[in-house]
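note to self: dont lose this again. the chain is below, predicted strucutre after it. 106 aa total, dont forget to put it in the shared folder this time
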Amino acid sequence: MNFAAILGLISAGNVLAQGLPFRPHPAEGRPIVRVDADLVLVPVTVTDRHGAVVANLTRGDFLVTEAKRPQRVVFFSHETAPVSLGIVVDLSGSMANKIGKVQAAV
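---
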């Protein structure tokens, strides 16, 4: 089972973009588009040096920065992430005497 933590961050960009109207670009006459992001989701999976998932992390276990400035984590949750897996098996003649081992491994 794979676990992921999702951090919700308030983007510093919303402070810069609030209240600014669309206006033409001075050199080209095209509109300037400003985007306001109130919440940014950052899905993460934390593993130890052996590749095992580290469970039971809390909001306080993370420090998220943007342009070297700490960002406030406003939402934190643990979720189970679905996994899709495909297995390709070589069934050519050279594998004829190994098919039993391949099936057991799968």
